[in-house]
Amino acid sequence: MLSKQNTLAIVFIFVGFFSRVLPHFENFTAIYAIALFSGAFLQNKRLALLLPIGIMMSSDLILGFSPYLPTYMSFIAIVFVGRLLQKKQKIEHIILGGISASLLFFMITNLFVWINSSPADGIFYCPKTLVGLIKCYTQAIPFFWNTLCATMLYSTILFYSFRVINSKLFKTVK
Asked: What is the pTM of this model?
């Protein structure tokens, strides 16, 4: 059975889901903040991992995107970063968590883009060399800024709104 606090956290997470399926600036969604938030606030580790991955999968289906395993791998890593924020929820920790989440997503997904690119699939633009890897990451930087800004913004909103609402409704947070 879910506690009132877990139920509230899940409601917040589903509200964040709509930031991905409704029109938005490219890569400017709450999805990475949701994974961070899940790790920090959901006590059930399985739920903390499965909820953001499930939201990503379902929104991928709605948006017509194919599932991409490295994306889900990055979500697992981000949830574990969120676990580190359970007892450290000052603004600087939340911002650092948002930066870490964005960097993890950027590093993991673009590494796999570089590894899996080939002339046969039409996305071979980075040779399998150190220079090619650097080129791959460099070409992805424009997408990174929106991810970074959105993750820091939404993380701050999720963490602080949750604390305020939780303390007012359930009187559990000091």
From this structure: 0.85
